[in-house]
Amino acid sequence: MTRIPGKKVTGKYIFCVNSPYYGELLKNISNNDAKVKEVNKCDDLSTSMKFSENISSTEICKEFKFLYKSFSEYRAKEISENDTFTDYDYDFLNYWLNYKLREKVNNGSINVKEFYKEIKNKDVGEYFKNKDLSDYLHVIDLDVLKNMQLLYELYDTKQKITDIMFDQDRTKDKEELCKEYTKTCYDNYKKSMDNCLDEYDDFYAALKVFERGYKYLTDEVPDKSGYCKISEYFRLPEYDPVLETKQKRIMTFKIMSAPLMLPFVIPLLYKV
């Protein structure tokens, strides 16, 4: 996992780089259902949001507090408690809370800050010792949230492919898994590209960063398993509608500007 204690990073999508690490923390929630249920001070939260019948604000509160505490429990030894959370981590917590609330709140009308404030008010000083988290919490635009989900999954799938490539185990399952992962990565990359607005779009820039890292994996890293590079989806598609649109715009400008240049060029030809 990439950790930069004390360093302020920029870009709303940058936390996705650490999705494999966050995925392990989320597994910790699903693998410890009994412990999650034991988390207290989550009952009777006063919130304006209307939750669906199959889940309550209490359940999300318990999961959120358990996830928050997991960062402290699984931090590296060289990282002090004060530096437990990076900017990446705060952005991930905001992403996770947005995702859970949008998924479970009726009509998708959510208030992230209100929800966090209610949780914190019921548990003063015990869990949320770091004051910075509230500064990072906000409602994420739905389209941006969907892009975050795509990029998060791209990095997570890339790590799964990497793990197989470094594995010496030549089982059939590994071969099928790598086919599945490379196909998922291929499809999600193309879908992500279709969501990009233009070359100045934050998501496009974040996607190009992923592309460079993935290209290094496919071009420079040996596939010790022997199963990933044989997949027809091993390399990302040569697909960039943003670049294609830019090139078409340049060509159109050249074609349209050519007649405008003729009045200046013809006199010069006669002089010669």
Q: What does this 3D model show about the protein?
A:
The protein is mostly helical and 272 residues long. The protein has 3 domains: 127 residues, no CATH class; 93 residues, no CATH class; 33 residues. It is 61% helix and 0% strand. It is built from 10 helices and no strands. The longest helix has 31 residues. It is globular and about 75 Å long. The termini are far apart.
What keyword list fits this structure?
single chain, 272 residues, mainly alpha, 3 domains, 61% helix, globular, disordered N terminus
**Could you say which structural class the secondary elements and strand pairing correspond to?**
mainly alpha
Task: Please state roughly what percent of the residues sit in beta strands, choosing from under 5%, 5-15%, 15-25%, 25-35%, 35-45% or over 45%.
Answer: under 5%
- Euclidean distance between termini CA atoms: 67 Å
Low-confidence stretches: 1-9, 246-258
Helix content: 55-70%
Average residue-wise pLDDT: 83
Q: Return Rg in Å.
A: 24 Å
Tally of extended strands?
0
Individual helix count: 10
The largest sheet, given as strand count, sense and whether it forms a barrel, is: none
- Total domains, how many? 3
General shape: globular
Q: Please write the string of helix (H) and strand (E) elements.
A: HHHHHHHHHH
Protein name: PIR Superfamily Protein
Can you summarize this structure?
The protein has 272 residues and is mainly α. 61% of the residues lie in helices and 0% in strands. It has 3 domains: 127 residues, no CATH class; 93 residues, no CATH class; 33 residues.
